[in-house]
Design goal:
Beta Polymerase, domain 2, NADH_UbQ_OxRdtase_CS, EC 7.1.1.-, NADH dehydrogenase (quinone) (non-electrogenic) activity
Length: 151
């Protein structure tokens, strides 16, 4: 089951789902984002929270839409496990989680300045040429589409 909430209400809704005695969604299994570029006009991203009720053995997906530049309330005050998951969303998509205790890159180097690699408008090979160790120059860029395999 999936429910959609306003991004401003995400923390309050998840807290209600966690604390209500008949619901008890007390385990955060995942938090991620989906770039909806070219699928709809706005909001650009969906933040997706996967919850699990251990006593009831039921799963629930909570989604909220967020545009580029908007913030989402952090779930770290509710689930400590949201810390690294929100950092990953920030790193890969550029989504800022308001109230996060230590929002910084987790997968990419701290000095990464080439954008957010999981956005659909991010170039397949990045914005700059990269020289692999042991090579003198970067691999040539492929322009256009790749050839189709022959039957």
């Amino acid at each position: 089951m999936t429910i959609r909430v306003k991004r401003e209400a995400l923390r309050e809704v998840v807290e209600f789902l966690r604390d209500h005695p008949e619901l008890r969604y007390n385990h955060l299994t995942d938090l991620t984002a989906v770039d909806m570029l070219n699928l709809r006009d706005e909001p650009r991203f969906d933040v997706v929270v996967q919850l699990y009720s251990i006593p009831r053995r039921q799963r629930l997906r909570v989604k909220c839409g967020v545009n580029d530049g908007e913030t989402v309330p952090s779930l770290v005050p509710l689930f400590a496990g949201a810390n690294w998951l929100e950092r990953e969303c920030y790193d890969m998509f550029g989504i800022v989680f308001e109230g996060h205790p230590d929002l910084r890159r987790i997968l990419l180097p701290d000095d990464w300045d080439e954008g957010h690699p999981l956005r659909k408008d991010y170039p397949l090979r990045g914005y700059r040429d990269y020289v692999q160790p042991g090579f003198e120059r970067p691999a040539p860029r492929v322009r256009g589409s790749l050839p189709r395999p022959r039957p």
